[in-house]
TrEMBL record:
<dbReference type="InterPro" id="IPR052750">
    <property type="entry name" value="GH18_Chitinase"/>
</dbReference>
<keyword id="KW-0732">Signal</keyword>
<dbReference type="Pfam" id="PF02839">
    <property type="entry name" value="CBM_5_12"/>
</dbReference>
<dbReference type="Pfam" id="PF00704">
    <property type="entry name" value="Glyco_hydro_18"/>
</dbReference>
<dbReference type="InterPro" id="IPR001223">
    <property type="entry name" value="Glyco_hydro18_cat"/>
</dbReference>
<feature type="compositionally biased region" description="Low complexity">
    <location>
        <begin position="344"/>
        <end position="372"/>
    </location>
</feature>
<feature type="region of interest" description="Disordered">
    <location>
        <begin position="341"/>
        <end position="372"/>
    </location>
</feature>
<keyword id="KW-0378">Hydrolase</keyword>
<feature type="domain" description="GH18">
    <location>
        <begin position="40"/>
        <end position="329"/>
    </location>
</feature>
<dbReference type="InterPro" id="IPR017853">
    <property type="entry name" value="GH"/>
</dbReference>
<dbReference type="InterPro" id="IPR003610">
    <property type="entry name" value="CBM5/12"/>
</dbReference>
<feature type="signal peptide">
    <location>
        <begin position="1"/>
        <end position="30"/>
    </location>
</feature>
<dbReference type="InterPro" id="IPR036573">
    <property type="entry name" value="CBM_sf_5/12"/>
</dbReference>
<protein>
    <recommendedName>
        <fullName>GH18 domain-containing protein</fullName>
    </recommendedName>
</protein>
Amino acid sequence: MIRKRSLVLAATVAATVAAATVAAIGSANAATGGTPLPAHVFAPYFEAWTGDSPATLSQQSGAKYLTMAFLQAATKGSCTAYWNGDTGSPISSATFGADFDKIRAAGGDVIPSFGGYTADNTGTEIADSCTTVASIAAVFENVVTTYNVTRIDLDIEDNSLTNSAGIDRRNKAIKQVEDWAAANGRTVQFSYTLPTTTQGLASSGLAVLRNAATNNARIDLVNIMTFDYYDGASHQMATDTQTAATGLHDQLKQLYPAKTEAELWGMIGVTEMIGIDDYGAAETFTTADAPTVEAWAAAKGLGQLSFWALQRDNGGCPGTAGSDSCSGVSQSTWQFSHAFAPFTSGSGQSTPPSSPSSSPSTSSSPSTPPGTCSAAAWNAGTAYAGGAVVSYNGHTWKAKWWTQGETPGSADVWTDQGTCGAGTTTPPTGNCPAAWSAGTAYSGGATVSYNGHKWTAKWWTQGDVPGNNSQNVWTDNGTC
């Protein structure tokens, strides 16, 4: 799949307030943490290299939330990211900080996006460029604290889809940032933006997600680019969006079998290329397609709706394919933005959604009998904020920080508050380790007990029953 990106970098965006004032705002933001995004959000991409003001175009278009494209290294091999790889546009409150504050003051927010076609093609995507996981994680954390954001987008296409080392580094860095955020009381979500076929992700995109699972990296949203198919077929773009997202849903169900239907759909985002895409007129997303997709996405409960790009939302170049400044179809200015705007709904999420390391269970029994303990029974599929109280094995437990899937008594996250009842889930006795749980993710080498036997995981696994799965994940160590 090809998606054009300008190779010409814009001049540094001038700050609209004094640098000292903006720095003070950024410092205050870093101390407080950002507000989570709505559960269902419309966030079109904003071409950050153009010199346009994000706040101005957000106000004019009615698109309150923007995905900012793109952050990347200036040169291959660097571990420093800049907006569009322009060293004059560093990650700094003086670059876009004032705009972002105005967007938030108007009730919106931003999602910084790393990568994009140009970076992925030239080796300047941060995880392709930088070979140190800790340094990549530090870049992500710097974006979070500098701009007080709660979601980072990773646009991975072209060469970045085949760079296995970069894929692994990126996902390891995501895990590090998620651990850092949990320890510091922050909400940080990660989305992957990936190319798609009309039936779901290609194998290269699936490999990115599988590697994330291997590294216990929680991916909160998978955003598919429903354009630039380049398959020579006839396309009805709204229909293709639905079949592509449905295919992704089925793929995610295989990756995360414990998730509910609502959680799976909520993990999906779609990004259109409004008007005529890079392939040409055969792939045209029309003004009539927009309300159809918005209504369908809202009915399914998708997590995000987006398009490339806000500066294209005008009818200034009818018949032109793949322009960065107009859609190529006859339309009124901001017509696509107005059609998609109603999609934004739902309050912000107070805790990160479930993850490969902690997927919710669709059928979970209480750990203690009703009425035995006053606190609700712990559930492997529930995300708990710091301070949450649960009952498990006849004890009351209090979470020290955000957690999901970590069994009380087997992880340092829980503090034992004392007995509260007999309980029904009893830890194994004798030489048996903790009982296997379908809702828990296990790393290679983890040991569990099941059916009176001790089992050791060969690699990362979740939901694979010891002794009864086609992947032969578990080694039987004998009775215990």
